[in-house]
Predict the structure.
Amino acid sequence: MTEPLVQARQLTKHYVLRGGLFSRRQVVRALHWVDLTVYPGETFGVVGESGCGKTTLGRCLLRLVEPTFGEVLFRGENLLQLDRETLRQRRRYFQMLFQNPYLSLDPRMNVLNLVGEPLVTHTDLRGRALAERVAALLERVGLSADHLYRYPHEFSGGQLQRIAIARALALNPLFVVLDEPTSALDVSVQAQILNLLKDLQAELGLTYLFISHDLSVVQHVSDRIAVMYLGRVVEVGTTEGIFYDARHPYTQALISSTPIPDPQARRSRVILQGSVPSPLNPPPGCSFHPRCAQALPLCATEEPRLVDVGDGHLVACHRAG
Amino acid sequence: MREPLISVRDLQVHFHTHAGVVHALNGVSFDLYPGEILGLVGETGCGKSVTGLALLGLIPPPGQVVGGEIRYRGQNILTLPPAQMRALRGGKIAMIFQDPAAALNPVFTVGEQIELVTRRHRRMGREAARRQAAEVLRSVGMPEPERILDTYPHELSGGMQQRVMIAMALSCGAEVLVADEPTTALDVTIQAQILDLLVDLKRTRGLSILLITHNLGVVAETCDRVAVLYAGFIVETGPTGAIFQSMKHPYTQGLLAAIPHPSSRGRPLQAVPGTVPDGLQLPPGCLFHPRCPFAWDRCRQERPVLREVADGHQVACHLYAGEAER
């Protein structure tokens, strides 16, 4: 069995809202008791609707936000116990690609500085050697050395995302968190970026955590998938296991409500009632029970734990297993 | 033959900017029939929203309709006097938008906003307007409509806000609903609820809907007919079944092939090379030719027109011109 690259144990992030003088202190459970394991070379998909905690998960794994509780093991080392200097040195091994390159790239920096910044921070490359390295990175992502001295506003969304990818890969990271990397792009450009990410992964042996709300994209790129709901992981499995043998009622509803571009594929749709409850006051017991058609009395009182239903397929549901 | 409710012919819209004239719509033609959902699909900047806004006479300056006509029940609404256009807009033709939170006024209650529309259009009294508002909220599947009337938009979820928008659009008996990306800002489980509601309104009220979207999945599941827009020009239109079964235009084919599909796992996606042309400098000939794998000389010189290739299925592409000419 291969050693895991990244492991989260009981990873929890609570945000405390301090209201006014007379309002009660409230706690948002953005991420609650999440366990997951990512192996080298795989693409681990994370899906869920807005507010389910998928972005918080990505950020906690890289310690971009400080988790409230839990452990993040990167090659066996707990990132949360590292001092600042050691953490800074480790950061070259894990990178993040954000959803909106218009926001993630500083409009006042040219491409050379944008892509070269991590190299200046972590290596001795300067001057011509730096420019050459950046040019090589640009070529690798489908741009060219002609773009070195241009600014973000001169590029399209797809080109900007390529620049952001070059920046993320500048230091040869091992692990990249891709947070909705194609959600701001049109489908024809999305296809170009997804293909590029796949090529780079094969060439550089990268490990991806791929966060998305788009199930067809996650299905296309992932080896394994975690489904999140209200700050918790409700199901983990291989892509086949999730899409063809979903056990959690939420996963089933999510898959069935995703529109498929084929009018012949009329399916029996499960349309969920209501919407996702506020993470300020999550329901007791299983947080999905108020919307669940198969809820048992037990679901309203006791929180289900993730259990293995066979071959590493994990489900947090009282009905399963 | 049924009469179209809305008939758009050769609509051209230009935006006069400092950088030059942006050609947003370059001859858009389509019909919307009573009781159907017509999907208007295309990528960012193809002119979908401008088309929708044009139907309500709401093209923002510096945009201008420079040619073509929009007929509603046979009458060209582009030449209507402003007062008559105001009566039509929000009355018989209504619109909902992508972001309901931005479209609703945050400082008025839901009830006040819906009542304003009916009182303005139907000259209703306060009491009657309130009863009518509750009624229309119920008809879009709102639980406890009387309570919702007194809530402010921020108290409602995105899906609920979109239901309020739909209720407001229907409150004066709209025949045509222009829905501009109505579910793009919503989660998939909520999107399914709203799409279900739109299909239901079509069936029960005979509402005609122009559904503007970038999502071919949404089109496949809700629309009766489709029109594909590229660079402000309709490149292909026809019944949903026929379009998905045999797409003719290379752009439509490319658009569908680019979507990840269970069968595409482990293989590269077929991306459409290049990017959408700049409205400031449109290519000569067919607008798609710089990205088209099949382009030849004729495509670079002559802009193709929509030609019928099957019953109700029209394509603007020289590849199929031979069939029609011969």
Remarks:
- Chain B has a mean pLDDT of 92.
- Residues 188-205 of chain B form the longest helix (18 residues).
- The domain at 6-92+173-262+269-325 of chain B is CATH 3.40.50.300 (Rossmann fold).
- The radius of gyration of chain B is 21 Å.
